[in-house]
Amino acid sequence: MNTDVLLREVVERLAGLGPDRVWRTVRAPGGAVLAEGTGWDEDGLPEDMGGVDFTGKSVVDVGCNLGHHCFMAARHGAAQVLGIDMDPEVTACATALAKLYDLPQVRFETADALTGIGGRTFDISMMIDIIGRGIILKGKAGDFLDAAAALATSEMLHTMRPIYSLERDLDCPAGFLERLYPERFIRDGRFHLLEFALDRLNADWSATVLTPEADLGHKYKYLVRFTRR
């Protein structure tokens, strides 16, 4: 299939999705913007992928949306990349984008990471801008951390906001979060998400914050790499 045909297919699929389901800006191979993203760019991975070595590795991106970070991993040398998302129209569009970008090592599946993807594992799992307010209030932060860990044999990449204000950020009533998470992570009117994640994964994983120290004061979410012990 030639590039013009693929480009028309992508444009049509993007139009069908509408702006609310496009999280990162989508570009044509030449750089022209096909759809503006509605997410926070700084919540994603930096262009150098935080210095993580993807060369020759297998990667899974949980909650991949249209595959922005899947394509970045492939361009940084990943041998195989699987993006999973629960929206079949999104994964169909992402598949068309992979063809447009001529990245055959990138595939997409419609799946729920919490119910598993057939026991498959990868060198690296990524969960970029997934664990946030909605996941926290559903009491699912631990479940998503566990799911990412089950998929990875050696490394995980997460972006997460380290601390949430119960009143300003989560807008939850007093005592609500204590029913979902251990009380030691809820103090001074805040939920300490990064601390919770480090504790949850501590038995099997060590962690390094990859966000440069100079950026820690103003980044909305931090990039954290977990390495299996």
In short:
It contains seven helices and twelve strands. The chain has 229 residues and is α/β, with parallel strands linked by helices. It comes from Alkalidesulfovibrio alkalitolerans DSM 16529.
CATH topology descriptor: Rossmann fold
Strand order of the largest sheet: 5-4-3-6-7-12-11
The CA-CA distance between the termini, in Å, is 45 Å
Rounded average pLDDT: 93
Question: Can you walk me through this structure?
Answer:
By secondary structure, this protein is α/β, with parallel strands linked by helices. The protein has a single domain, classed as Vaccinia Virus protein VP39 (Rossmann fold, 3-Layer(aba) Sandwich). It is 29% helix and 24% strand. It is built from seven helices and twelve strands. The strands form three sheets. Strands 5-4-3-6-7-12-11 form a seven-stranded mixed beta sheet, with helices on both faces. A three-stranded antiparallel beta sheet has the order 8-10-9. The chain has a two-stranded antiparallel sheet with strand order 1-2. A hairpin with a 5-residue loop joins strand 1 and strand 2. Helix 1 packs antiparallel against helix 3 and helix 5 packs across helix 7. The longest helix is centred in the first third of the chain and has 15 residues. This is Methyltransferase domain-containing protein. Pfam families: Methyltransf_31 (PF13847). It comes from Alkalidesulfovibrio alkalitolerans DSM 16529.
